[in-house]
Amino acid sequence: MKDRTHDEATAELFQKDPAFALAYLDNVLEEGNQAELMIALRQLSKAYGGVARVAEAAHLNPTQLYRTLSPEGNPELRSLSAILKAMGMRLSVQPLPPSPTL
């Protein structure tokens, strides 16, 4: 059996179970921070053929996309939307559950 990195195993899981990938990304958006979001998007890009392929589909410069998806990346909404669209996803807005009153 060949050893795999965590990112390779995660990308393989996302390829096999796109619903899990969506739930994972949704959870990161809900619970995580921006660095965690960039990590999740990097892992998802591997599942969708790699950063170069996602960049091509999103009409973005691959070098810039690598920088954008770094833990320090700060994508514009336009870039984030293009990246997600290249992977067959989109952002959506949902209401938050009511917060308990004190």
Can you tell me about this structure?
The chain has 102 residues and is mainly alpha-helical. It has one domain. The protein is 63% helix and 0% strand. The radius of gyration is 15 Å and the shape is globular. The N and C termini lie far apart (55 Å). The mean pLDDT is 88. This is Addiction module antidote protein. It comes from Thioalkalivibrio paradoxus ARh 1.
Q: What are its keywords?
A:
102 residues, mainly alpha
Entry summary:
The chain is an all-alpha fold.
Give the integer mean of the pLDDT values. 88
Strand content: under 5%
Q: Please, how many helices? A: 6
Counting DSSP E segments of at least 2 residues, the number of strands comes to: 0
Structural class: mainly alpha
The helix content, as a percent range, equals 55-70%
> What's the number of structural domains?
1
| SSE string, helices as H and strands as E | HHHHHH
Largest β sheet strand count, sense and barrel closure: none
Low-confidence blocks of residues: none
What's the Cα radius of gyration? Answer: 15 Å
Q: What is the global morphology?
A: globular
Distance between the termini: 55 Å
